[in-house]
Amino acid sequence: VVYAGFFAGMVGGGLLLGRLSARWSTRSLIAGGVAAAGLAYAAVGLWPNAVWDVAAAVAAGLGASLASAAAMAWFLAALPGGTIGRTMGAGSALNTAMVPLGVAVAGALMIALPLALLWIVLGALTLAAGLGLAAPIEDDLARAVSGGVGPDGS
After folding, report:
1. What is the C-alpha separation between 95 and 117, in angstroms, rounded?
2. Least enclosed by CB within 10 Å: which of 11, 53, 82, 152?
3. Taking the model in full, what pTM does it have?
């Protein structure tokens, strides 16, 4: 049921993305999506029951959908046309290689910490990342890091 809630949030985020991207910058969508997911993860640890877990999963799915789609749009806009395939392939391989490491770290943390505390810590770190992404960055720095594409996608 919790996974279904996350999926529903992902679908909802995908449906909202067109309207929201017309009003908000790419950076705002990424930062807001990551922050929303962080709040949802922390809510699971703060109020551990089935109803809150499903509601938090919907919110996390919504945030993840907005952040990942906006980040991918920014990423693709920053890449020169001839390098998109190689870069996406390398990124996919790196992502796949990190899954076992993430499972190992999460397993060790689950042994060391109470599960509710783990959710709160995960949520706080994710929320901090979202707020960090919302911090103003000089356009020149953002363009240098992203290969010429500013934080607003232009």
Report:
1. 26
2. 82
3. 0.78
